[in-house]
Design a protein that fits this description.
By secondary structure, the chain is an alpha/beta fold. The chain has three helices and seven strands.
């Protein structure tokens, strides 16, 4: 008959437990760092997955947010295609092939509004009367109109009916613009 004497050393158990916890924490930190850096490189690769013919649709809810973002960061949005609806608005110093595709932005509770919109260029712009509602699909380019300005080169334009809610509202302060993706 064999009898084994098994002695438990409290200091040894503490050292093993401490070593296991440190190893676990190091492995966890390594995994987290790998996911962070791998995720960052994946997000850069995902930009190439956006189709070249992707067209961002502007709506009443995102119109002024996108308008503000594009005006503040023109270079980030050059080449982007957008689609939106508005009315034709002209001022005296525009060229014959230019108009502003406008919306009225409510600025106060008593329904006071200001005109906001994108400057558009289209060879047959004169075919569309002032205040006529149109839907435009175009590409954003950098131009000059009293300074650097995003200009929408119209690819497609068609007459449309006035929308039920013709007004847009000021940009949200909580809106976080994204680079190159509308």
């Amino acid at each position: 008959m064999f009898i084994y004497n098994f002695k438990v050393n409290g200091s040894k158990i503490y050292k093993i437990f401490f070593s296991a916890m440190v190893t676990f924490l190091i492995i966890t930190v390594c995994i987290v760092m790998f996911k962070i850096f791998n995720g960052a490189s994946n997000s850069q690769r995902n930009d190439s997955c956006i189709p070249k013919n992707h067209i961002a649709k502007l709506t009443n809810s995102n119109y002024t947010n996108i308008l503000k973002t594009v005006h503040e960061n023109i270079d980030n949005y050059v080449g982007m295609k957008i689609n939106f609806t508005g009315y034709v608005y002209r001022v005296l110093d525009l060229n014959n092939n230019q108009f502003i595709l406008s919306r009225d932005m409510i600025i106060s509770s008593d329904r006071q509004s200001v005109i906001v919109g994108f400057l558009c260029e289209y060879n047959n712009a004169k075919d569309f009367a002032d205040n006529s509602w149109v839907e435009v699909t175009g590409e954003i380019v950098k131009g000059n109109y009293h300074g650097d300005m995003p200009i929408v080169k119209v690819i497609e334009i068609k007459n449309t009916d006035k929308p039920n809610d013709e007004f847009v509202y000021p940009p949200d302060e909580s809106y976080i613009p994204t680079s190159e993706i509308l």
